[in-house]
Design goal:
By secondary structure, this protein is of the alpha+beta class. It is built from 19 helices and 13 strands.
Length: 444
């Protein structure tokens, strides 16, 4: 799994730089006009394609271990559909989010692509991606076929612009050997706040700092998101007109993370990725990380590890997650054959997403997620058990830029440079300005 700004995965929330690349690449301050029939719903979607031969370009950012998995699915589709040839181009996510709007604006964009869910509304508002309501209707796809938060995340201005392929939630990874050395049951990881803190106390008596608090988006900011929702809070109001992450639930969430450092459960000044490496090397017991970590840990020789849903620290179950979504891009000229063939491709990959799951994902499609084959993928199934407790940012244009202010607050607080309430308050003031700017830029 690779991050849409850098290495490995899914920065998902807090992807301000990705948003900045996107806006700069578009080259103006308002929505792109729909030209030459490129916007609006395309022809009614079909489940099969019987038209003339077409060639489709499919862009994504799967530069890690997930790339070969998607390439194999593309090859499988091409073999089953001789009149459709899909060519896959892969870029680093940062490059991808810069290249796509620029290519679309010149009429040279790809036909199909993948977007992280928080990028969909921005691209919809700028006329980069096309509505897919017809595809959902023709395939009779509905919320119950996925899960409410995943399905709703692809809607902007009452139109669907994305079909979810997967979700990649945060889970709790743990080193079984370290737990056993502290007298803890390695087959029964903690599930509540009391159990978790008790485990950290036991580990501390053995000289182990059990949970390394990261001040970086990977993984500290994501943990802060999870905990804010667990304490009953939200990051923004539903329409993203104002930030809510400086209110009491979020302050509790960030305070909980900061207390890991203050109470000695975590070292100070944890470096990027050091929390994950510490768990692998037996220096820590727990690491709250994304599902992409499964592939990493499978490659660590001799490591006895497990993974579960996040423990419930607050008043309710919740977890951060990202989601890859299929989109179709605006074209200089509307080609009904290409649009129909593209929808057939999206449907095919969605239906065959069990193969994608094997690469370290949770399929968005419920029928795949509930299959015996997926349940046999024990780590993915454990993290996937959180499917209805996942949260995504509001489907509002420019939201990644406002989310980026949270990164700074978490960093300042966990590095003990500011108290949690002050760090969040300062960040919320900046986010308020960004939200107001976005409203002017994209419209109410």
């Amino acid at each position: 799994m690779t991050n849409h700004l850098s290495r490995r995965g899914v920065l998902g929330l807090g992807a301000g730089a990705g948003g900045a690349f996107l806006l700069a690449a578009c080259g103006d301050d308002g929505p792109n006009p729909i030209v030459n029939g490129g916007g609006g719903n395309a022809q009614p979607a079909a489940t099969s394609y019987a038209g003339p031969n077409v060639a489709l370009t499919f862009w994504n950012g799967f530069t890690g271990g997930d790339g070969p998995v998607m390439k194999a699915l593309v090859d499988k589709f091409n073999a089953a559909n001789p009149n459709i040839k899909v060519a896959m181009n892969v870029y680093e996510w940062a490059d991808y989010y810069q290249k796509v709007p620029a290519a679309v604006s010149t009429g040279n964009g790809p036909d199909l692509g993948i977007m992280h869910v928080e990028q969909v509304a921005t691209n919809a508002a700028r006329g980069v991606v096309l509505p897919l309501d017809d595809l959902a209707a023709s395939l009779q796809l509905k919320e119950a076929d996925f899960s409410p938060p995943v399905w709703r995340a692809g809607v902007y201005n009452n139109k669907r612009y994305a079909i979810p392929l997967d979700v990649h939630p945060q889970g709790m990874f743990y080193n079984k050997k370290v737990l056993a050395s502290a007298g803890l049951d390695p087959e029964k990881p903690p599930t509540t706040n009391d159990e978790y803190l008790a485990a950290l106390d036991k580990l501390k008596t053995k000289g182990v700092q059990g949970h390394w608090a990261s001040p970086f988006p990977f993984t500290g900011v994501q943990q802060f998101h999870s905990l804010t929702w667990q304490f009953g809070g939200q990051l923004f109001d539903e329409q993203a007109t104002r930030p809510l992450f400086a209110e009491e639930p979020a302050v509790k969430a960030l305070t909980w993370l900061v207390d890991l450092v203050k109470k000695g459960y975590s070292p100070k000044n944890v470096a990027q990725d050091a929390d994950a490496i510490a768990m692998q090397n037996g220096k820590a017991a727990f690491n709250w990380n994304g599902i992409w970590n499964i592939n990493t840990l499978n490659g660590v020789k001799g490591l006895d590890w497990g993974v579960s849903a996040l423990p419930q620290i607050g008043t309710q179950k919740a977890a951060w997650a990202g989601s890859h979504n299929f989109v179709q891009f605006k074209q200089k000229a509307n080609d009904p054959n290409k649009l129909t063939a593209g929808k057939v491709f999206i449907n095919f990959i969605s239906q065959n997403s069990i193969e994608w799951a094997k690469g370290g994902q949770v399929p968005a499609r419920k029928e795949v997620r509930e299959s015996a084959e997926f349940k046999a993928l024990a780590p993915q199934a454990a993290i996937g058990s959180q499917i209805d407790n996942l949260h995504f940012p509001p489907s509002v244009p420019g939201i990644p830029d406002a989310m980026a202010t949270i990164d700074t607050a978490v960093n300042e607080a966990i590095l003990l440079r500011k108290e949690p309430a002050k760090a969040l308050s300062d960040a919320a003031a900046k986010a308020t300005q960004i939200l107001a700017q976005n409203k002017k830029k994209y419209g109410a």
